[in-house]
Amino acid sequence: MTGLRPRLLFLAPVMPASTGNGLAMRGWSFLEAYGRGHDIHLVVVELFGHVPVSGEVRRLCRRGELVAPARPPWRLSPARAALPSPCRRLPRRGAAAIATGPGPWDAVHVQRLYMTPVLDDLAGWRDAPLVLDLDEIDSLSFARLAELHARRGEPWRAWSHRRD
Length: 164
Prior knowledge:
Blueprint lengths: L6 E6 L9 H14 L3 E7 L9 H6 L2 E5 L10 H4 L3 H4 L5 H4 L9 E5 L18 E4 L4 H14 L3 H9 L1
Parallel strand pairs: 1-2, 1-4, 2-3, 4-5
Helix pairs in contact: 6-7
């Protein structure tokens, strides 16, 4: 730990918010708690659409940045094709895509399992405590989405979610 307050890197797939969907509100709850004792650097990989950094997030975080998801090529490498679909849209090189600011980090919080590949190329986090926020069972969620798309007559989407 350096300085007066520990530095926390917070990785999220959606912009945390005090209202809205459950994932955004869950992220907000963590940010509020961390904000009491940490300098937070928020990085949102916009997997589910663009939402600007709000004033309420700016008040809690020392720094907030948005990273556009990668647009995978039509033909993926076998290793990349084997990943669940959200992972295939993560930036290919985390260090190149995310300006990580004043690392090394004193703590890292990653919201959702599919966000962990972003850490692969980031520097300054390996010695920090890592909080992996797993708020649902991904395999069950994908299975439910597959069932929903099958009932809606969307076989390609159903197949894709079953595969995930």
